[in-house]
Specification:
Layout lengths: L1 H15 L14 E6 L2 E12 L3 E8 L6 E8 L4 E5 L4 E7 L3 E8 L5 E9 L4 E15 L8 E18 L1
Parallel strand pairs: 2-10
Antiparallel strand pairs: 1-2, 1-10, 2-3, 3-4, 4-6, 5-8, 6-7, 7-9, 8-9, 9-10
Length: 166
């Protein structure tokens, strides 16, 4: 009886453990996930292209008291790795999505990264990852003295909007 039981149990176990992904973390369409100063941080994405072929990525926190937005701007050429310097990568927070309370840009002498790992031109869908070493340019929050903000392990998925920003 034990032999028959194992005969059926082992194939069931192997099927249950089959791995049909390639080991990469996945994110839901039009969302991002990352680590912001060692805290999990996620939200929705808005992605568009300007008339000058600049891809503008916005990662907007998905609620609660967090009104943070991460921004990346790159000269879009499809899949590839893009270095971010200065204000090509930034982050800001508001109170109630209204009044600016903090603003950060890429630290001087450092670079951030924005990688597009998948791009489907027909559906306009993109996937990728990002990392930004940031330094404050504006802090208007009581008891906030940390002028460094690090966003790492960023993953995103989204669809480039049809409208072109002029």
């Amino acid at each position: 009886m034990k032999t028959k039981f194992l005969f059926f149990l082992i194939p069931a176990f192997l099927l249950a453990c089959s791995n049909d992904d390639d080991g990469k973390k996945q994110v839901v369409e039009n969302t991002f996930t990352s680590s912001k100063n060692d805290q999990n941080w996620n939200g929705i994405t808005e992605i568009t292209i300007t008339a000058e072929d600049t891809l503008v990525f916005l990662g907007v926190a998905d609620g609660g008291a967090d009104y943070g937005v991460v921004v990346a701007r790159v000269k879009f050429k499809g899949e590839g790795s893009y270095m971010l310097k200065g204000n090509q990568g930034s982050y800001y927070e508001t109170i109630g999505a209204d009044a600016l309370i903090t603003q950060y840009v890429i630290e001087p002498e450092k670079t951030g990264s924005f990688d597009i790992t998948s791009y489907d031109e027909s559906s306009r869908s993109v996937e990728g990852n990002f990392e930004l070493p940031l330094k404050a340019t504006y802090l208007n929050v009581a008891n906030t003295k940390d002028s460094i903000l690090t966003i790492v392990n960023g993953l995103f998925s989204g669809t480039i909007r049809e409208e072109i920003i002029r």
